[in-house]
Amino acid sequence: MDVQERIKQQVTSSPVVLYMKGTPQFPQCGFSGAAVQILKACGAQNVVTVDVLSDPEIREGIKAYANWPTIPQLYVNGEFVGGADIMREMYQQGELQKMLENSAA
Question: From which residue to which does any coiled coil extend (predicted)?
C-alpha cells in the first residue's frame, strides 16, 4: 500500500485525526502543542494522533495529501481542516467546536 493510501485509510477510519510532531503528552513543536491544547479546549474526544516524526513516509506524504506544507494537520470526518493557525481562528469563532460536535454525533 502506498503512502497516500495509508493516509487516506488513517483519515477516514476515525472521525478526528491530528497529524503532529510528537505525541499529545510530548509535542515536539509549539504548533503541535497548540493544536493539542485547542482540541482539549474544545472537549474533543477520541482524537487519533499520528506522530509524523516516527514515520518519515507519512511526514512527507501528508504534505502532498492535503497540498499543505506544514504540520500539524487536522482532519475531521476525512476532510482536511487546517493547521494550528486555522484551528485557532476556527476555535475563537466557535466553528471548530461545532465541527467536532458534529463529528462525534
Answer: none
